[in-house]
Amino acid sequence: MASTLHSFASSADLAGSLADKVADTLSAAISARGTASIAVSGGSTPKAFFQVLSTRDIAWDKVTITLVDERFVPADNARSNHMLVDANLLQNKAKSARFVPLYQPAAAVEEAARLATEKSAEIGIPFDVVILGMGGDGHTASFFPGGSNLATALDASTPRGVITMEAEGAGEPRLTFTFSSLQDAALLVLHIEGEGKKDVLAKAEGSGEEADMPIRAILRRATSPVEIYWAP
């Protein structure tokens, strides 16, 4: 599927433009069927975007927010993506949105993934908006090169839902939506910042195996066009 690169002079410019695009997409979904859904990435990159989006005039009480992936840690852990969303997105006008976490209290990460899949079924897929990030190794969501369930995660025939992922360098075990859950959002965005990430993107857009740079699966096989938002 073709991708479109949107380049901005600064992170602030990107955040404002992406917030406008997401707000329009969510509002259109609410107008069409009364509800809207968005799955967002973690890490430090989306903070400014989250903060701007939280101020947009959307019928937030009709919006459900979840994460594309999460560490197997409680919400009060500093490494939790849930904490990032709480502090930066579920603020201002967005306080009335519904949030569905991926982390579920369980003895094992596999059980947490099963519970998260049950919870996410209440949202409905495809999502209206999916915001992905990308690591320097070419991972996206928690699709890590060498990950324990990578082939399952990238298989478009894998049932929609949340699976587990463990990989060297990933730290805690991860919970991640499958490629099949993310690929056909009405708005599918890859949000990256920094010259280094642009270099990684150029490498990912070249030849090579998806297993070596899992972002290639999104760029090559997603059934929705990929909107790439980049700032230095």
Task: Briefly characterize the structure.
By secondary structure, this protein is of the alpha/beta class. It has helices at residues 11-33, 47-53, 81-88, 109-121, 150-154, 179-182, 195-204, 215-221, and strands at 3-7, 36-40, 63-67, 69-71, 98-100, 129-132, 162-165, 174-177, 187-193, 226-231.
Task: Describe what this molecule looks like in 3D.
The protein has 8 helices and 10 strands. The mean pLDDT is 97. The protein is of the alpha/beta class. The protein has helices at residues 11-33, 47-53, 81-88, 109-121, 150-154, 179-182, 195-204, 215-221; strands at residues 3-7, 36-40, 63-67, 69-71, 98-100, 129-132, 162-165, 174-177, 187-193, 226-231. It is globular and about 40 Å long. The longest helix has 23 residues, at 11-33.
Proportion in β-strands? 15-25%
- Count of alpha/pi helices: 8
Identify the strand order in the major beta sheet.
Answer: 1-10-9-6-2-3-5
The radius of gyration computed from the alpha-carbon positions, rounded to a whole number of angstroms, is 16 Å
Order of helices and strands: EHEHEEHEHEHEEHEHHE
Let me know the average pLDDT.
97
Query: What helical percentage do the residues reach?
Result: 25-40%
Biggest pleated sheet: 7 strands, parallel
Alpha-carbon distance between the termini? Answer: 25 Å
**Principal-axis shape:** globular
- Beta-strand segment tally: 10
- SS-based structural class? alpha/beta
Poorly predicted ranges (pLDDT <50, ≥5 residues)? none
